[in-house]
Amino acid sequence: MVNTKNPAKKTVKKKTGLLGIMVADAKVQKAVLARYARYNTTKMRLFSFTPSDIDWERKKITGLHRIDRNWKKGLFPFPDIIYNRCYEVNEDLIDRLEAVMGKNKCFNHINHLNKYEMYGHLSQSLDAFLPETIPYDKKTAADFLTAHKLLYLKPCLGNKGQGVYRVEMKESGQIHIGEHHIQSLFIAQDLSQFLEKMDEYLGSTPYIIQQGVNVRTLVDRVFDIRVLVQKNRAGLWSVTSAVSRVSYSGCFNTSLFEHMYATQDFLQYLYTPEKAQALMLSIHDVSLKAAECIETYGSLHLGELSVDLALDCDDRPWIIEVNGKPQKNLYKHFESYGTAYKLPLEYAHFLRNRPS
């Protein structure tokens, strides 16, 4: 039995493989571990820990685990595999961990993805499915807006649609700027006033400018398609789930959604069954290629990511962005919910048993 008052007194021994789930905050350790443990079909033993729980001198980690139906702290050796669930982890930390554990023993080591870097990786093979994207500066912003009329400005390291601006140049020359909502936050009378206002909004935060796509809507409401792509027990990319989020009326930000549906059902509402099936195949294909591109060209070791797509008025899928730390609570009311938690553990099991 592990002594909870002084967990350092006893070390938990590896038996069938040890998987450490690294989280950013001790407050979420129990909730995160409980979710994954519920769907653990491997024989690996799980524990959760934070970066501050690592004892580098003794090469031990103080972690939370479940034993005899109780949650307890124990002292663990460095695990066989680490599944990173921290959003902004220091790359030096991962390098230090893998120096002890071995290369590629920590997956999703980088999951707060830079949007412009991802655009560069994706454009290697999927340029036809990408809105044109450039780094923000005053000169390029003015030229880009004049050329495309509709733009989205996004922080390079944004999260959940925060700080995203929609910019549209009207035929009158007025420039309408919106945040979350299509309704204008500010109307600039010319390019000079537009750039001055964007300086105020963006400050020194690095931004990208993304060409606006004339997307298909549902009764004037914007919708997107979020595809969860994960590696399976064979170490291969597979599609776990695809859901469609329908925004509130007047919103362009689907992170603020009013309704969510399984994309297969949603597309059958909009199209014939044959057309819906063809679109699903295309969406799956683009999403899988996106995961492969990012991992290959970005030199990243990933086990999962989500791909956000939109359909234009010609039913062509466009990759809007990718997310390195998928929000799995989105799938709570869908059949894929359990699989979303099960597959990272199966992939970890694959990594542990893969020949070096």
TrEMBL record:
Keywords: ATP-binding, Nucleotide-binding. This is ATP-grasp domain-containing protein. InterPro entries: ATP-grasp (IPR011761), YheC/D (IPR026838). Residues 120-352 form the ATP-grasp domain. It comes from the Bacteria. GO terms for molecular function: ATP binding; metal ion binding.
